[in-house]
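PROTEIN DESIGN WORKSHEET
SECTION A - STRUCTURE
LENGTH: 520
TOKENS:
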């Protein structure tokens, strides 16, 4: 029996658009997020594309998500996914590759690009995963868009307007800067013979232009950032952490003009009283304090995605607390000064604890500390250092909060290092499974002894899989397709071990397969 299409009416009824766009246009783009509505509508990049397409004359944009079963249909007009001429996927996390393939299968669109005919949509993939390493998905995707939506959307939409048929669109994109087209570019065969493909990031000059500020287009309660109007503060990061792609792949640190950010607050007022400032380095905007104070004056409740440890100041904390925020996220990454220096983050525990004391002294009750395990050169002493640091943070909390009649919680968000392309650690092997399990056991046992301290879940198998599909070549297609058909990660890691283990556990030498793309 045919499964009914997903009912999007409750989602649409709850949405509050900042600006209303017509769902009808001469041209239509299917904009797909390879995850649920709850996750996808929390993506500022996804919402930015939605807005930019609608601002182009004669164009409308219709959203698609993984929710439901059977044929995916758009929220706006319930148009079947396979009825669009082009479907642009936004993918920020490699684990969502499986969801993308499942959406194609449900839409009866051939999963492999070689099997598609003239009547099938052009499948485009953008987002950070396209720029990190597109090769694992190159058997499935027709066109990879490399860079900022502001730069890659105009040539793509030009081609969709002007070319007859999918093959002509694909061929045209192969000749343009900022696009990797597997049918025409063969980096695994041509090597150095293939000219470097450019990634078109947003420049500092572009970010100063009016209208360049990405903000929420639709506020909704049915998202990870419920009811929040998100505002991008900056791009890049002033730190040089050796594990972080954002630092090395997004270009030098640059920020949006203060007057543009303040103007966006007026657009938010009719639809919500909650703001979320997001960026890799939110607190490093030179006018962060006056921006937060102005948001408070206008009656907004504000929060920040996370904040660099040096950017924790009296003024920032006072403004956030006055707005009603009670949670702060910091990323010490490891528990010892020595290892932090090795990873390119020369911040001492003493300095960190001074900032933590400031946080609790201002009345914040929820402190999230992000850590990585499996770092090159890491020892069990470094793991114990995480527990020691957590205990000292807890002690500071118990000194400061009871003075205010409060108690709080310290949460350790801990992940396994996945050595990413284009980072200084891109050649490093992942820590072995036995070592990681020992470290996790030590952390769990230590945290269990501390009240008001919690530890997030940590999956070694998921980290192995993510490492593989972030660094592999086109030969990962069979494993990714098997995952999309429902094979478990445990089974995949066993069945494809001969090709997975060398990618994950061997130090990489020479020119790396993803270096056919020129990073900023």
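SECTION B - SEQUENCE
RESIDUE ASSIGNMENT:
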């Amino acid at each position: 029996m045919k499964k009914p299409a997903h009912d999007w009416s409750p989602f649409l009824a709850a949405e509050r658009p900042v600006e209303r766009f017509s769902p009808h246009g001469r041209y239509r783009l299917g904009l797909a997020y390879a995850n649920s509505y709850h996750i996808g509508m929390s993506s500022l990049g996804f919402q930015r594309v939605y807005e930019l397409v609608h601002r182009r004359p004669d164009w409308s944009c219709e959203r698609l998500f993984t929710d439901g079963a059977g044929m995916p249909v758009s929220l706006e007009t319930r148009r079947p996914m396979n009825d669009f001429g082009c479907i642009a996927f936004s993918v920020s996390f490699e684990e969502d590759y499986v969801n993308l393939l499942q959406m194609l299968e449900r839409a009866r669109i051939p999963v492999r690009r070689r099997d598609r005919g003239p009547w099938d949509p052009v499948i485009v993939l953008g987002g950070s995963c396209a720029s990190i390493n597109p090769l694992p998905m190159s058997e499935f995707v027709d066109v990879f868009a490399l860079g900022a939506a502001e730069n890659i959307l105009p040539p793509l939409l030009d081609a969709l307007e002007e070319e007859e048929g999918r093959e002509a669109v694909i061929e045209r994109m192969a000749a343009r800067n900022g696009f990797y087209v597997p049918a025409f570019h063969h980096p695994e065969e041509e090597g150095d013979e293939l000219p470097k493909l450019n990634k078109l990031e947003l420049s500092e000059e572009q970010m100063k232009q009016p209208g360049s500020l990405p903000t929420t287009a639709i506020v909704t309660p049915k998202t990870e950032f419920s009811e929040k109007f998100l505002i991008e503060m900056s791009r890049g990061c002033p730190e040089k952490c050796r594990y972080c792609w954002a630092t090395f792949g997004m270009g030098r640190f640059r920020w949006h003009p203060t007057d543009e950010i303040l103007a966006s607050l007026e657009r938010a007022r009719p639809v919500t009283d909650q703001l979320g400032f997001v960026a890799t380095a939110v607190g490093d905007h030179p006018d962060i304090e006056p921006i937060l104070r102005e948001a408070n004056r206008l009656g907004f409740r504000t929060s920040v995605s996370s904040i660099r440890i040096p950017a924790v100041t009296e003024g920032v904390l006072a403004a956030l607390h006055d707005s009603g925020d009670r949670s702060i996220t910091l990323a010490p990454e490891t528990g010892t000064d020595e290892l932090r220096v090795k990873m390119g983050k020369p911040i001492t525990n003493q300095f960190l604890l001074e900032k933590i004391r400031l946080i609790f002294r201002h009345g914040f009750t929820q402190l999230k500390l992000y850590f990585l395990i499996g770092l090159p050169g890491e020892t069990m002493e470094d793991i114990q250092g995480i527990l020691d640091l957590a205990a000292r943070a807890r002690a500071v909390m118990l000194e400061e909060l009871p003075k205010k009649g409060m108690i709080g919680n310290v949460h350790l968000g801990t992940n396994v290092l996945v050595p990413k392309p284009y980072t200084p650690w891109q050649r490093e092997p992942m820590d072995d499974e036995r070592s990681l399990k020992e470290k996790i056991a030590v952390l769990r046992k230590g945290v269990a002894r501390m009240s008001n301290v919690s530890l997030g879940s940590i999956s070694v198998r998921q980290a192995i899989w993510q490492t593989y599909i972030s660094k592999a070549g086109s030969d990962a297609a069979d494993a990714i397709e098997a995952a999309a058909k429902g094979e478990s990660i445990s089974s995949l890691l066993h069945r494809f071990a001969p090709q997975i283990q060398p990618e994950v556990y061997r130090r990489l030498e020479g020119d790396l397969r993803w270096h056919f793309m020129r990073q900023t």
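SECTION C - NOTES
Residues 24 and 303 are 35 Å apart (CA to CA).
The chain has a mean pLDDT of 94.
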